[in-house]
Structures are given as C-alpha cells and as structure tokens.
Write a structure and sequence with these properties.
Largest sheet: 6 strands, mixed
Strand order of the largest sheet: 2-1-13-6-7-10
Shape: globular
Distance between the termini: 47 Å
Order of helices and strands: HEHEEEEEEEHHEEEEHEEEE
Strand content: 25-35%
Helix content: 10-25%
Number of strands: 16
C-alpha cells in the first residue's frame, strides 16, 4: 500500500486551512482572508471512524467538517496549473477545535496548537482515490449530531480552491506523500459534548455518497485540562 493510501499511518503532517468559507469566517466574526491561513496539526490527532473523540475537562469542543486532500508525491513551489498532479486522493475529516482555548490564545496573540492538536481531534474517514472524485470543487459536506443537521455545505464555496492551496502551502513548506491538507469548513460550526454521536457524509454533485465518518464524544479522564485565566 502506498504512503498516500495509508496516509493516517505514514503521513508526516496535517496542514489545515482556516477561514476558507466566507460564511464560516463571518459566523466567528473573523475577516475574510486575502491569502490562505495555514496551521499544523499533529498526525497523532487522527481518530479512525467509529472511535471515541476525547474532550478534556474544561474544553468547549467545536466540530468543523472538512474535505481532506491527500498528497501523492513530494513537491515544492508547485504551480497551480500542476497542482492536480500532486493529489493522490481525498478523505472526509473533522477538525475538532477547543474553541474556548483558541479564543484565549488568539486574544493573547499566541499560537493555536493546543486548541487544534489534542489527541483524537482529527476524526478521519477512509482514503478515497482521486479517480472516484469527478469534481472536488463540487462536493457536499454534512455533519449531524444525534441526527440533527449542523453543517451542510459544498466545496464550491471555498474562497481558495484546492490548486491555490497546494501552490500556497508548497511555497512555504515542502509537501510530501501522505501529507493531508484540511481545506476548511463551511458554516454551522458548534459544540460537541460528551455523549454526542457525530456523523458526517461526503457526496458528489450527483448526490452519490463517497464517504461517511462517525464518532462518539466522550469525556477525557486525566491529561490536559483547561482552566480559564
């Protein structure tokens, strides 16, 4: 199996994009960015579908359903016109965020790593070879909690399309086979609490289901705890 197909085990980094859907930027009272906002998540935050996503004590956890792009080969300074050649496939993902932690860190102008990098904070679906995705710029993303729809968006509403993201990231850091790019979340983000059952879907423009992802939120025992200052 290639490093791309087994990206959860072999990938070296998760490169995430912030505020790539204008309605999501607005709901958090953030300005729409002029260029992609990038941050990193550790690969140790991956959680296979069906697992338990652990919320540390004191943390207000928010869901952010996203399309993940799996990088197929090493590249640096990749032109937008060649970006598709660096895509091996896709995956449905959720970028869990410790929102209260993030807000405090942002207020102090400090990095978001703690808010984004907690163990189990990147629930991830199975690898989808790119041949199965006719148009990645027209994919429906949904997320439900206990059966109630919370997010229902489409990748066509991205501010920066996938080729632009690949180009921009690769001018800053070399992309390698098995890396995952989280392309941003549509509007509708909100809290997940222990006991919640979260289910996500990815569908193509015709309505065909390409992937599902589910997990259960649980209270983490021990480890990191957040206490507001």
């Amino acid at each position: 199996m290639s490093a791309a197909a087994s990206f959860v085990q072999q990938g070296k980094k998760i490169v995430a994009i912030g505020r790539n859907y204008s309605e999501h930027a607005k709901e958090l009272n953030n300005a729409v960015p002029k260029e992609p906002i990038i941050f990193l998540k550790p690969t140790t935050s991956y959680l296979a579908s069906g697992g338990n996503m652990e919320i540390p004590k004191g943390v207000v956890a928010h869901h952010e359903v996203e399309l993940g792009v799996v990088v197929g080969k090493r590249g640096r300074d990749i032109p937008e016109s060649e970006a598709e050649g660096y895509v091996a496939g896709y995956a449905l993902a959720v970028d869990m965020t410790a929102r209260n932690v993030q807000e405090e860190l942002k207020a102090k102008r400090l990095p978001w790593t703690v808010a984004k990098g907690l163990d189990t904070f990147t629930p991830i679906g199975s690898y989808i070879p790119k041949e199965q995705v006719a148009n990645p710029a027209d994919l429906g993303l949904t997320l439900t909690i206990n059966g109630a729809v919370k997010q229902d968006g489409n990748t066509k509403d991205m501010i920066f399309p996938i080729p632009r993201l690949i180009h921009h990231i690769s001018t800053i850091m070399t992309l390698e086979e098995g890396d995952l790019i989280l392309t941003g979340t549509p509007s509708g983000v909100g809290p997940v609490v222990p006991g919640d059952k979260v289910e996500c879907t990815l569908k193509d423009g015709s309505g065909k289901q390409l992937a599902t992802l589910s997990f259960t939120a649980v209270q983490r025992e021990g480890g990191y705890q957040y206490k507001a200052e």
